Amino acid sequence: MLGGKRFLLGVTGSVAAYKAVQLASDLVKAGALVDVVLTRGALEFVTPLAFRAITHRDVLTCMFDPNQPEALEHVTLAREVDGVVVAPATAHAIAKFALGLADDLLSATLLATRAPVVIAPAMETAMYEHPATQQHLTTLRLRGWLVVGPASGRLASGAFGPGRLADLEDIIGGLRWALGLRGDLAGRRIVVTAGPTQEPIDPVRVITNRSSGKMGFAIAEAARDRGATVILITGPTTLRDPYGVEVRRVRTACEMYEAVKAAVRRCDALVAAAAVADYRPEAAATDKIKKADQPELTLRLVRNPDILGEVRGDFIRVGFAAESRDLIANARQKLVEKGLDLVVANDITAPDAGFEVDTNRVTFVYPDGRAEELPLLPKYEVAHRVLDRVVELLRLRRPVSPA
Ligand code: PMT
């Protein structure tokens, strides 16, 4: 998504400027080419050398410096970049951008660019909440810029409140969202399930499984990156909410069932990557079950709803099948039983595939009986392959309805 893209990273004079070094590093690690522009204020907090060491490119600071010929070419730079990120953006910089002033390299480049712009404000709470700043931010939003954050927390002054630079993951998530706005899932609503469910035995213990949520979260992020409106319904996981995705957190299979039923109204596709417990204890004990003298304890389990099997409608339905044997035969059976458009068969015995890891090895099983094996891929890539198929099916069946 970010690989092979070229970005302009603008840094303005806030104490949070040091975090922009990490942001540049994260973008470079994602395979992007990053041109950094530091304002005069930023130079008080960070050095061009830090950014140059990370981006391996000249860092631009001044529009008229004969030693920085690229800076004079700011109109070309503005035209060539795929996106601009300003992080941190001070109240002063935001005011300049909103007014369309162009008295330094960064503001001039921003005026000249037509690429998506993401800004991440960072300042004291009083400055952020001031009507002038709020008005300027509204102006920028109306202009189509994405404002990410600020986050709330401890500020440089020691006070607490809104004004901290947003988490870098959210800034990058915002950039990915902004780049994908006109993607092939624009105007589509995709519901994704992820993670395990937890079925309580007593107030302390649960029946659960090894799903980390990574596969489902990757699908939600990939769908967001292609322009979809995404609802992610997830069981308990340690993963943070992806930026730009509506996350609904549930615990049990029954809760997931209710959440999915509510979410699929007006959706275009349901992609179910969650590992849902098929059974739950008939009744959870209200008090912690104590160790007793008898050597055995019997738990009586009852069936949970088959969410994907039961939630049907006029939308594309994709299921996963995690199998330790007879992969394709079992996946085909699930496809037929649940009436699915595609089953992603997941061989959990393959190395680096299935639960918890960042990669996966899957085989697509189609309603006409075909099976298509994919190589070992990062889960985010697997997600895109699944969505490629969803896009194809949607094109055949459901043209985007006008907003
Ligand atoms: O979360 P990760 O650590 O990244 O791991 C990813 C994964 C291995 C969990 C994922 O790739 C995967 O294979 N998910 C499906 C797991 C599974 O056990 O599926 P199943 O064979 O039990 O169910 C088949 C399909 O029906 C699935 O789409 C499942 O979400 C759905 N289902 C199952 C039971 C149930 N009661 N309701 C359901 O909707």
Describe this protein's structure.
The chain has 403 residues and is α/β, with parallel strands linked by helices. Helices cover 35% and strands 22% of the residues. The strands form six sheets. It has an eight-stranded mixed beta sheet with strand order 12-11-8-13-16-17-19-20, with helices on both faces. The protein is elongated and about 80 Å long. The mean pLDDT is 95.
Structural class by sheet pairing and helices: alpha/beta
Which overall shape is indicated by the principal axes computed on the Cα atoms? elongated
Largest sheet strand order: 12-11-8-13-16-17-19-20
Can you count the helices? 15
Largest sheet: 8 strands, mixed
What's the Cα radius of gyration? 25 Å
Q: What ligand molecules are bound, each kind once?
A: ligand PMT
The proportion of strand residues reads 15-25%
Which segments are poorly predicted (pLDDT under 50) over 5 or more consecutive residues? none
Helix content: 25-40%
Mean pLDDT: 95
Number of strands: 21
Topology summary:
Elements: E1 6-11, H1 17-29, E2 33-38, H2 40-43, H3 48-55, H4 69-72, H5 74-80, E3 83-89, H6 91-99, H7 105-112, E4 117-121, H8 125-129, H9 131-142, E5 146-147, E6 151-154, E7 160-164, H10 168-179, E8 189-194, E9 199-200, E10 206-207, H11 214-225, E11 229-234, E12 246-249, H12 253-263, E13 269-272, E14 279-281, E15 301-303, H13 307-310, E16 316-323, H14 327-338, E17 342-347, E18 359-360, E19 362-365, E20 371-373, E21 377-378, H15 379-397
Bound molecules: ligand PMT.
Residues 193, 195, 211-215, 253, 272-276, 278, 304, 306-308, 319-322, 334, 346, 354-356 line the site of ligand PMT.
